[in-house]
């Protein structure tokens, strides 16, 4: 009879779930989970802070279409996971946090790091559970992975009382579980006909593409649909679900599209603040929403027809329902007017893109990045000014290749997202375009990246603060100590510190060569670009939209 501990059992079940990478901060009472992970052949990424580990795991999971797994010790290690769980749940990214907790025999006595951890995380989780026996650890992992992944993905928490983790059990008393094959919900055929009729009789149809469409790989089917002549707008992290150079891509005319459409079909997205809580549409617009979660269909938006179904299955059904029509002639003028509006909006920033002045115009930096990127790059953008400019200017061409501050607008995600994405797809370029505050919020993750061989390129647009100097100069008392402005610290030295590649750029003509050297270096790189602290975004608007 062979005896194994709870850590080995957890690792074996995770492998059965298709997971080959764990993130975590080594701590009791979870040491056996780390050791079991390593002995069972999983890659274990030891992070410098649970918040970074949780974000790395979320990005890895979003890329792999599996839950990211984050292993944390007890007490503060678990409370440090509250933010990644919240961000994952709100941004529909699958994340499983496995947290150690106090030993059962001493609870209530003031044990080390004792806390009611489930209560601490419950409101930011899709599901929580507590391991009740070492033998059942595989079953609990099976439950946690399934709950994180199915329906709308999100964060889940599984609590491991310390005494269950290290206990040895006979391996023949343990049952491993296999995930069910899940058939996704298809739309009712009659409803498909109704939506097809609505679209083909619309004068100003519009398709909105949410993260659910990205998650369900709906891109090719949506492409067939928009090829009938329908413009579409992508949610920020759904960029690339179909390639951004599709002629009907209307994000550059987003306001015109949202306020002008007469029939709007939302595929796999929520009418939350990113879509103006559903209040920005024309009063007589007809709204159809397709979502895997029924409760999403009641929201601030005046939805007239809700469909509980998978985005890809629905887009495929609609494309075949429309297939007798070669195009939608009624909508041709509308599509053309949005293309013109997009060209006008893009032209408004053109002079900034080629601006030669010093300090460097941030639009110039992002334009240079755009020209240097391969089509399959995974792009993470974060910051206030910086993320807004990236949203307007950086394209994505491949599904689930775009990460940003997401539904919660959380700073501190950028560095770990870029690292997690690089670990998920080591052969693709993972680039983080980050504000200086955003970089600093998670800067020590560069040590993790260098140690595990992740090779993100982190381009820091250093405008010396939170929205550069704009907040400090205009909204805080004149002459008061700097709290929103920051020092122009030499951030690239953090790459040197860990043996990575460092670039420091002050002149516009140096941007491209520096990016080229960083890409050729084949290791973690920081390209630190000093940009104009007084520059702001042209056109304004909400920073995540
Ligand atoms: C966790 C968290 N804390 C604080 C904020 C408020 N906030 C919004 S943007 C931002 C930083 C922006 O500065 P930077 O990253 O340098 O980008 P810039 O706007 O200068 O390009 C902060 C702190 C937030 N969104 N999330
Ligand atoms: Mg800044």
- Mass-distribution shape: globular
Secondary-structure arrangement, i.e. CATH architecture of the largest domain? 3-Layer(aba) Sandwich
* Number of beta-strand segments: 19
Main sheet overview: 6 strands, parallel
Strand % is 15-25%
Poorly predicted residue ranges: none
Determine the fraction of residues in helical runs and give it as a percent range: 25-40%
User: Average pLDDT, to the nearest integer?
Assistant: 96
For the record, give the distance between the C-alpha atoms at the N and C termini, rounded to a whole number.
58 Å
- The domain count comes to 3
Radius of gyration: 24 Å
Describe, in short, the structure shown:
With 545 residues, the chain is α/β, with parallel strands linked by helices. The chain has three domains: 3-173, Thiamin diphosphate (ThDP)-binding fold, Pyr/PP domains (Rossmann fold, 3-Layer(aba) Sandwich); 189-342, TPP-binding domain (Rossmann fold); 349-530, Thiamin diphosphate (ThDP)-binding fold, Pyr/PP domains (Rossmann fold, 3-Layer(aba) Sandwich).
Structure notes:
With 545 residues, the chain is of the alpha/beta class. The chain folds into three domains: 3-173, Rossmann fold (3-Layer(aba) Sandwich), CATH 3.40.50.970; 189-342, TPP-binding domain (Rossmann fold); 349-530, 3-Layer(aba) Sandwich (Rossmann fold). Helices cover 37% and strands 17% of the residues. The protein is built from 23 helices and 19 strands. A six-stranded parallel β-sheet has the order 3-2-4-5-7-6. α23 (511-521) links the parallel β18 (501-505) and β19 (525-530). α9 packs across α13 (311-321), α11 packs parallel to α13 and α16 (362-372) crosses α17 (385-393). The longest helix has 16 residues, at 332-347. The chain is globular, with a radius of gyration of 24 Å. The mean pLDDT is 96. Magnesium ion is lined by residues 383, 435-437, 463, 465, 468.
């Amino acid at each position: 009879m062979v005896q194994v501990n709870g850590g080995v059992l957890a690792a074996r079940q995770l492998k059965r779930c298709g997971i080959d990478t764990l993130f975590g901060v080594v701590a009791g009472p979870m040491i056996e989970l780390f050791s079991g992970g390593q002995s069972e052949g999983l890659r274990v990424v030891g992070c410098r802070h649970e918040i970074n580990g949780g974000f790395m795991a979320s990005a890895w999971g979003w890329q792999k279409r599996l839950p990211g797994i984050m292993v944390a010790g007890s007490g503060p290690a678990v409370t440090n996971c509250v933010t990644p769980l919240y961000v994952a749940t709100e941004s529909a990214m699958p994340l499983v946090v496995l947290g150690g907790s106090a030993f059962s025999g001493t609870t209530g006595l003031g044990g080390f790091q004792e806390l009611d951890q489930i209560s601490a995380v419950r409101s930011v989780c899709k599901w929580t559970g507590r391991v009740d026996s070492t033998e059942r650890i595989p079953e609990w992992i099976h439950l946690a992975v399934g709950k994180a992944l199915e329906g709308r993905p999100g964060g889940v928490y599984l609590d491991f009382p310390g005494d269950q983790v290290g206990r040895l059990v006979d391996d023949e008393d343990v049952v491993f579980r296999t995930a069910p094959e899940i058939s996704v919900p298809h739309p009712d055929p009659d409803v498909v006909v109704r939506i097809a009729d609505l679209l083909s009789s619309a004068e100003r149809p519009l398709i909105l593409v949410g993260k659910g469409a990205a998650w369900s790989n709906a891109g090719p089917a949506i492409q067939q649909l928009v090829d009938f002549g329908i413009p579409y707008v992508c949610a920020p992290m759904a960029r690339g679900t179909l390639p951004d150079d599709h002629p009907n891509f209307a994000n550059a005319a987003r306001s015109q599209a949202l306020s002008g459409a007469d029939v709007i079909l939302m595929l796999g997205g929520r009418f939350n603040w990113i879509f103006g809580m559903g209040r920005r549409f024309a009063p007589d617009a007809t709204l159809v929403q397709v979502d895997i979660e029924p409760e999403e269909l009641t929201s601030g938006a005046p939805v007239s027809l809700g469909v509980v179904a998978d985005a890809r299955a629905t887009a495929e059904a609609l494309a075949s329902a429309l297939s007798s029509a070669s195009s939608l002639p009624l909508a041709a003028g509308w599509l053309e007017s949005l293309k013109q509006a997009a060209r006008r909006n893009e032209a408004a920033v053109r002079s900034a893109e080629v601006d030669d002045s010093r300090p460097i115009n941030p639009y110039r930096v992002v334009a240079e990045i755009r020209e240097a990127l391969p089509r399959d790059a995974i792009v993470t953008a974060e910051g206030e000014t910086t993320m807004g400019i990236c949203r307007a200017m950086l394209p994505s061409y491949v599904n689930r290749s775009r990460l940003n501050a997401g539904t919660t607008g959380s700073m501190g995600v950028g560095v770990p997202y870029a690292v997690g994405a690089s670990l998920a797809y080591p052969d693709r370029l993972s680039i983080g375009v980050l504000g200086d505050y955003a970089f600093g919020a998670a800067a020590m993750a560069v040590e993790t990246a260098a140690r595990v061989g992740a090779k993100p390129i982190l381009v820091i647009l250093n405008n010396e603060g939170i929205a550069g100097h704009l907040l400090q100069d205009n909204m805080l008392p004149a002459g008061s100590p700097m709290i929103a402005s920051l020092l122009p610290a030499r951030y690239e030295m953090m790459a040197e510190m860990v043996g990575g590649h460092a670039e420091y750029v002050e002149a516009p003509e140096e941007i491209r060569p520096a990016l080229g050297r960083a890409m050729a270096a084949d290791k973690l790189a920081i390209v630190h670009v000093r940009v104009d602290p007084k520059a702001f975004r042209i056109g304004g608007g909400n920073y995540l939209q």
